[in-house]
Structures are given as structure tokens and as C-alpha cells.
Design brief:
single chain, 542 residues, Jelly Rolls, 3 domains, six-stranded antiparallel β-sheet, 7 helices, elongated, signal
Amino acid sequence: MKTRNYLIYSLLASVFMLTPGCAGDDIYEKDINTDANRVYEMHLICGTVTVTARDLIDEYGDGEFTVANDCTIMRSFDMPLSLEWDELVVLSSPSINQLVPITKGVASFDITIPMKLTPSDDMRLDQVDLSQGMLNTFVMVPSGISSGTMTLSFPEIFNHKGQMLSYSLNISPSQRSLQISEDLNGFTIKPEQLNANAPHTNRVKMVVSIKNMASNSGGNLNVECSMIDLASDNISGYLGRRELSKTDNGFDFDFFEKYELEDKVQFADIQIMVKAHNPIGAPFKVEVDNIRFDKSGQNQWFLMNNNETAQLKPTFDLAAAKGPNPLLPSTSDELTYKRDNSNIELIGTRQPNHLTCDIKGTSNPDVTGSTQNIKNFIGTNRTLEADLKVNFPFWFSTKAYTRTDTIDFDFQDLFDEETVESFERMTFTLDFENGMPFDLTTIARVVDANDKFIANLMDQTQMLKSPTINNDGTVSGTTTSKLTIEVTKDKIQKFWDKKAMKILLDLSAMTKDAPNTMVKIQTNSTLKCKVTMNGKSQIPNL
């Protein structure tokens, strides 16, 4: 598998990729003439590369890695949780259809017909700013009324100019009905409340008034009215106590599999961090419950306290948001669970790849007694959010982290046959100064296009030695080591004849005194390497 997404491999790749770029500034060349041949010896200081873990995050991380406060590198997974509170306040679609008798001979007539805006009476709506809705009304006087003035009004509904909604008709034998279809977008409703506390009425009234009826033989007044498709930009009042939950929120993370860590690495700590956000102008209690891990659907391990006697349930008492213009959501403090206050370290040893949890929210959780002076609001942002993050700090131990990576090595593309025949030997020397917290051994095998073995480029060699490990897992100072790769004439010829195409790099990393000692890879962890090449070729004199 050809890849550069892995930390240890990336360290080596950065060194090996330096070799083809040797500059000519530090070249020593010696020309030895013999009777039959001209022998060239060449010494090149290819250069020095310095690689830090921070560099590798920037180059290979693809945004997957973050950095802890102590500069330890972490792989982080974010699991957003949300509760949509569109139904926290549900507006009804009130309607009326009535025949109202008018007494014969009276000169005036008034009637008030209420319509309720909400299906429940435990919330109090002080003001509703509508973003959509239609008001459809039809009122017709009986044929026995031939003159007069009819007024139709809605005392709780106000137009864009703040004026109460009102319509009128001069009654005549040919004009006995008033029909209205009004777009309520941008209008405001201030519902009538008959009670200071629940049950709340949340009423809109339709008032029909007929004056100066000169001729009245009686009959029925036909009244039809409906308010449909009501939606709001903002609602203020008391929103009541509501509960909403969402269960079995699931999230996959491929940390152990992707980085080939299964059964190879033991982590000192894993962290779960939870924070909640409230954009609604009412206090909320938010609970994240039944946090559980599994591995490919097998078994379940619940997040519990560190002696595993009780489940951990992150709970937040969120203050009301401020606003609505401008809206300032409230945010909770972050709760963190790690090895000193939970069983997450034990869960980590089981190497899960899936997390599931439930979330529940309760509005106005602590309200008791009178709600008369409580002022809540809800705008267009009605999503209660919780952020759950799982961090895997690179604080670990390993007895045998092994993997094989592939480097392209098309030998016949690199050299022609004449050049190959002239080679006597080639030697690469790599001088390492290691600030990384592990020992590393490697074998490099040269294979053809079908992965058939040709020869070892280098036998098993300890390439890096670990510095001194401090009690907190960091390193003190650096260590130095030297790696020499000798490529003989016979081996060079074999690479050509067998059509070498790839180098398979078998890597094995080990931390000292594993698993008792845990080490940290930090952003300032550094590896330096000086690369020198010595070559000798023999060209016949012509």
C-alpha cells in the first residue's frame, strides 16, 4: 500500500525523499587513471533534513489532527448532536364558520368571535412576528338589511405600519358581503390573555360591527374566517416546559483501523469532551445519556466512572440566550472525561470504532409558581446543540508497531544499461539526531512489479534510537545513530536484470519498557538526518 498518511512512515519518507535532490555544493571528486580504465570516486554531502511532528501534521494531516495544550498531537473526532425545537411553539390554523342571527328592527349590531392561536394553554404568547400566513375572511349580511356600515376588525393583529387590521363596507342591496384575503408576512400578533398564569388563552378576536341599519327585517349574518400556514420569525412570552429527546445518535470513527493500530498500540488516555449551545431565549437542561462504544456492532461498553459503578451522564443547565436582535446564544462550560474520572482508558484498550448516545432537552426546567413575569423568546434559530468530541492523544506505548509501505523504485527508468555496468559500488550514510520517543528498526526489500523478491536493499537494522523518556512521556535531549546502506556492483546489476520496480519498507517501532512507559509525540518532536553518498564507477579508456 502506497501511502504517506502515517506519522512514522512520514518521518522516514521525508529523509529518503531528500536523497534524489543532492546539491553539488559539497562534492568531492577524485579521478584515478590506470592503464586500462579511468576510475571515478565521488563523495557527496546531499544535505541535512530537519523534520518536526508539526511539519508532518501540516503536510500529511489533512485537518485530521489537533494539538493539546501540552503540544501533544491528537487525532480528534467531532460528533455534533442537535435537537430541533420547531415544535416548541406550534401555531394553530384557527377557523370559524357561523350563522349569527340579527334581531329584526335593531339599528346596530356587534359580535366578537375569538380564535385560539395555540393547541396548548401552558404557554403564554405576548407577541408573534409572522414570517408567513394567510387571513381569509368572508362576511355577508342577510338580504333584509339594505343599508348601513359594516366594520370588520382584528384588535390583536397589526400590519407593517403598526396599525390594527380593519376593513369596512357600505351596505347596499348590491353590496352585502365583505371578502378579504390578506398576506400576513411581516405582520405582528399580540394575543389576548385573560389569565395571568395558565391556562393561557392566546386569543385573536374577530369583531364585526354594523351601524346605522335603516331597514332591518332580520336574518342570519354569515361569518367565515381562517388563518392558515402561520409561521414566525420571533415569538416572545413564556414558552412553557417542554421535553424533547433523540435516541441512538451514532458516529463511526476509523482511528485504530486506518492507522493500523489494532492490537499494536496501547494508549495512556482517551478524552471525551462535551459542550452545549442554546440559541433560544429560555433556559434549558440538556442531558447526553447512554454514551456507549462498540466494535463493529459487537458488545457495548458504556462510559462510566472510573470504578465502573455508575454511568456518566453529561448534564448542562444552559442559561437563556440574549436577544433577539442581536442574538447571543449561551454556551456551557466544557465537560471532559478521561482516565482519571472515567473508564475511557479501559474502553480504549478494546479499540472501538463506533459511538452511540442519546440527548434530551427540557425548557424552563426549574420554573415553579407564577409565570407572569417570565420573558422567553424563540427566533429562527431553534436548534439546541451539543458538541461531543473524542480525542486520541499520541500518548502511548507499543511493543511492536509494524507495517509495510511501498516506495516506487523503477530501476531501469533511473539508469541506462551502460551506466549500470560502470558502477563499482554505491554507499549511502545517514547520520540521525533523534528527538522522537521511539526506537525504530527497518528492512528494505527490493521487488519487481509483481512483488517478487529480488534482494534486500538493507538487512534488519536499528535505524533510530530513542532519547531519554521523562516521567510525563516527553523526551530529554536527542540521541545520535548512523545507518549505512552498501549497494554492491552485483546487487546493482541484479536490480537491472530482474527489473526492480519497488522498495518494500518493513517498519517496526517500539517504545522503551512497553507497556509500562508511555511516550508522547509532540509538535516539537524533531528528527534530523544528514545524508552522504559515496560512489565509485569505472569507465574504460578509449
